[in-house]
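User: I'm putting together a small comparison set for a docking exercise, and I want a reference complex before I start. The sequence is below, and the ligand is pyridoxal-5'-phosphate. Could you produce the 3D structure with the ligand included, as structure tokens?
Assistant: Of course. I'll restate your input first, then give the structure tokens for the complex.
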Amino acid sequence: MISEKMRNMVKNSSAIRAMFEEGKRLAAIYGAENVYDFSLGNPNLPAPSEVADALKYEVENCDALTLHGYMSNAGFDDVRAAVAENLNKRFATSYDKSCIVMTVGAAGGLNVFLKAVLDAGDEVVVIAPFFGEYSNYVANYDGRIVVVKPNPPEFLPDIQAFENALTAKTKAVIINTPNNPTGVVYGEDTLKALSDAMERAQKKFGTSIYLLSDEPYRELVYGVSQPYPAKYYRNTVSGYSFSKSLSLAGERIGYLAVNPDCDDFDDLIGACAVATRVLGFVNAPSLIQRAVAKCLDASVDVEFYRKNGEALKAIMDECGFEYVNPQGAFYLFVKSPDGDDAAMCAKAKKHRLLLVPASGFGCKGWVRIAYCVSPETIAASRQSFIKLAKEYTR
Ligand SMILES: Cc1ncc(COP(=O)(O)O)c(C=O)c1O
């Protein structure tokens, strides 16, 4: 029999699974091209050509034993050094290879970090709306997730509510900018205010509170300034992923960058390396580690996503749906006209539109539309959105 804990996780993940099954069912009836699947954040741009070149180079030129063998749990030394150097060049930071742990995507990195720092009952503060998997990741290590309520319409954190959520048990705060599901980017003022609140709490409780900055969308910003969170708060661990910036979601590659002046730096890095091993990853996949080290300045065409966002916003305007103007990532966060996000997604399904209710992101009354799809899908979905809007004006 499966565990009680797992039984609950399976039950709670059934909404997304049901959507996936529904998508397959609708595609079988109407044809895949007539089903507008906006449910998943799976990039539909190919990886930049630099990735294939780097993979080819590594396979043809590297010593096979080194390339395919076991390595340090934290990853290849030269890859970690290349990541550190690239971050220093871009953000004027002072990482070296000892600060970097290569991870199995952002999800692997988040789990490694939480495994490293959480004891049972420790609290992790998240700001709604947030990537729903955080709840599962925190539960993996018997932590307690503390949710700061959403702050519409800008969806920037309510700093007072945030500070009130910090307690003597707070081990970590997770932020995500650009944000999934809103596309909101935190500016300097927001990062400073969050940092000040955490500094005050550390002082008040005599504890260390780590900021885990979850940054899979760091490269996907639409011309706005995107400050680097680690510059604003000493106890920051940045979690990065190449899933979105290089369209490598299936390759499972990313890293944690631990600020060199973080509290308990040596223990933390050591624990992250051991967590990588004991969680069963052992190390991040070797070939793709080497390849991304050669592609640190490459990126997919962000303009493609921006244009998709503009096209979708035009449809929302025509339909009279309210939304958050995304500054990055590839999600449009849309308000359900009657406040019932699940009902809106159910209505949308009738018109072959697959959307995600934001209750799972801690934000009832809103839905997420992932626009990492083809421009043709967006154009073809227009009539379905118009029909959906009509359901609210009858
Ligand atoms: C905010 C956020 N964090 C983490 C992840 C996990 O990313 P990865 O594929 O790198 O594990 C995602 C994936 O969509 C995400 O949106």
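Residues 41, 105-107, 131, 176, 180, 214, 216, 241, 243, 249, 254 surround pyridoxal-5'-phosphate (CB under 6 Å). Residues 188-205 form the longest helix (18 residues).
User: Thanks, that's exactly what I needed.
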